[in-house]
């Protein structure tokens, strides 16, 4: 039988502090994968010296879950639950609205357990037209959460979809983590059938394989976010804040665990050619984004670059986003592709390993 806990137990009382720790560690410490890469370095665009296009003709608009995006970018789920996180989320939402991007918020569990913190996530006022994604950990379905909690976070955000994040490794490393993942697939199926918005399955940096994607799609998941290995290692993050030697060692041992992002994209696309696919995990520039789109992703998610810019200022976010869009458009132009549909369906990449 799945373990159940009170929403007011001592474990939940540490959530706000954990959110603050996560922000501080990601901004200040080196918590990237050191040995595992995204795998994107194994691919190179085939340069087209005569694209027969005007740069101004390049169109990087796209559709995601029936919504229009001006650029194929998702500001990936990051934070919430603290005053610093509230400011960051508001800045990110303003940018999503201004540039026509999608945005996910961090896990809203802290707001479920402390409703007075819901305002640190609720950014619809700042992004009235943007695609916004609510977020809860899938494992919480085994710890007393159900449809009511999921619908609540969707309603607070006025979200277009709900992300269920999958994080077994992080929970293993996290002190007193929630590690009962048994029977979750059936609960996800029930939730997908009942929730009023689409449900997206997302890893947190260790990747989703093709075989797991197929199982998730079979139970009603409407989109997949790869969140592959090669970027921020949440095992390393949790190791930095571990309370004992065992947990610190676990985080260090498994810091580079996971499926590289490029392999996730290829693996999911092999079994599900049409599923809406978000490529994320270690993307650091628009060229990375363009490679993931050429490999078959519909949109690409980035977290750390947006987080660092948002922590600085709104102007820094605008500059970053403008650069990312220019990088994506330049990749299309210099490979002779007019739009994202052409990019996905034409052989523009060569593997170099």
TrEMBL record:
Pfam families: FMN_dh (PF01070). Its main location: cytoplasm. Mg(2+) binds at residue 171. Keywords: Cytoplasm, Flavoprotein, FMN, Isomerase, Isoprene biosynthesis, Magnesium, Metal-binding, NADP. Homooctamer. Dimer of tetramers. FMN binds at residues 76-79, 107, 135, 202, 232, 282-284, 303-304. This is Isopentenyl-diphosphate delta-isomerase. The keyword Metal-binding applies. Residues 185-346 form the FMN-dependent dehydrogenase domain. Its cofactor is FMN; Mg(2+); NADPH. Belongs to the IPP isomerase type 2 family. Its EC number is 5.3.3.2. InterPro entries: Aldolase_TIM (IPR013785), FMN-dep_DH (IPR000262), IPdP_isomerase (IPR011179). Involved in the biosynthesis of isoprenoids. Catalyzes the 1,3-allylic rearrangement of the homoallylic substrate isopentenyl (IPP) to its allylic isomer, dimethylallyl diphosphate (DMAPP). It comes from Leptothoe kymatousa TAU-MAC 1615. GO terms for molecular function: isopentenyl-diphosphate delta-isomerase activity. It is an enzyme of class 5 (isomerase). It catalyses: isopentenyl diphosphate = dimethylallyl diphosphate. CDD domains: IDI-2_FMN. Substrate binds at residues 18-19, 107-109, 170. The keyword Cytoplasm applies. It is found in: Cytoplasm.
